[in-house]
Amino acid sequence: MTDTKDNRLTRLPMQHPYSLSKADRLTGEKNVQHLFVEGKSLIAFPLRVVFLPNSTQTEPVRVLFSVPKRRFKRANKRNLLRRRMKEAYRLNKHLLHESPIQSTFAQMVAFTYIANDLLPYSLIEKKMQEALRVLQETWTKNAV
To answer: In a designed cystine with 95, which of 31, 85, 112, 132 is the match (CB 3.0 to 4.6 A)?
Structure first.
């Protein structure tokens, strides 16, 4: 079977369970400012997590990943750490989505890398899992 150009344009992209689509990412200067000014935070070293409920968004969780330029001057190191955090989140985001509470309200979440040196992916993933569990417990407590 051959695909025509029209057929390819009308096909919708398949949403994989481990994907991190553009719709899942937090964008917009106002949203980011609002999150950091009014959000609550927790620390699972080397990650600082800032979160805030948001009733206006359509996605259940929208995330932001940040590595400060003050700690890592070279862009390649910041990009490497950001990629490691995104991958750790992408593979473990099911920890947030398995809660029945999560379907009732939306959240904005920012992950900031706060360590002063490059840490291996395995440690970042372990701490991301810990942060997601604590985040889910916090949301469950606040919703009850």
So the answer is: 132
Domains of the chain listed by start with CATH number: 21-138 (3.30.230.10)
Helical axes 75-92 vs 121-143, angle rounded to 10°: 50
Residue 108's beta-bridge partner residues? 52, 62
CA nearest neighbour of 126 among 25, 17, 45, 18: 45
Tokens for 26, please give them.
């937090």
Which two three-digit tokens encode residue 51? 């979160």
Look at residues 131, 118, 121, 123 and name the one whose alpha carbon lies nearest to residue 48. Answer: 131
C-alpha 78/C-alpha 27 separation (Å) is: 19
Question: With contact defined as beta carbons under 8 Å apart, do 99 and 135 qualify?
Answer: no
Q: Does pTM top 0.85 for this prediction?
A: no
Q: Please tell me the distance from the alpha carbon of residue 5 to that of residue 2, in angstroms, as a whole number.
A: 10
Q: How many CA atoms lie within 13 A of 32 on its CB side?
A: 12
**Closest residue by Cα to residue 94 from 14, 16, 12:** 16
